[in-house]
Specification:
It is a single chain. The protein is mainly alpha-helical. It is built from eleven helices and no strands. About 15% of the residues have low confidence.
Amino acid sequence: ALVAIPVTVFMAIGASEISQVAFGRGKCDSACVSEIASPLAFYGVAVWGNFIGYLLNRTLSAGNRAREVMIATIISVVVTIGLDLVFLQPMQQAGLALASAIAVYLNTVITLWFLRRNTPEISVRALALQQGRVLVAALGGTVAALIPVFLMPSGDTFWSAVVWLAVVGAVGGVVFVALARVLAREGVRTRADLRRPAVLARLPRESQASVLFHPARAVPRARALSIAAEVVRRLVFDGGARRLERQLRAWRHRPGA
């Protein structure tokens, strides 16, 4: 979220200037840049959904739920094709990008529902709170970035677009980082409270293992999806996908499993 949400906002706001910098040379005139910018904005909106969907798909796969991943993918592909037919005529290339963005978030919702249904241990509220903190910081950065957007003329040449992107990105980025640091302190305090022995003693053993992420303390008969739920929590809060996959494989192949 710390990367996906700012990238989503930046691409949506600066789609025209990004297209100007990347393609606005040679035979690609202003009309060409405009045709590129419209779908780019919708693809930018889909970045956050792609990040979350990737996380959820990896987690379902780790829990041996490839069937659910396949179902969500098939539904998303069918919806994308249908929306392509609806949006292509009135919106041209931008309609295809919009259809893709809608399908991305639909896939995210479906995989999240599958994960929650098969893994009641997972805390959707914790995931929502963490993503919500970053989203609030991104909204603050967006409001700040809109100030130079309205004050500065749109970049219709290469260097003017570069300057526009640099100023908008710097203003929005500084505000976003500042708000994210302030909001992160609350999340760190909440995490520290959970690790206190007095608090852990009141939790079930499954919850204690989820908080501490120590395989030796987990219940021997814990299901694979319980570990997958911990993968989600750890990925969202602390990162380290590859390290978690190694721990998950070690946990599954432990002696006596």
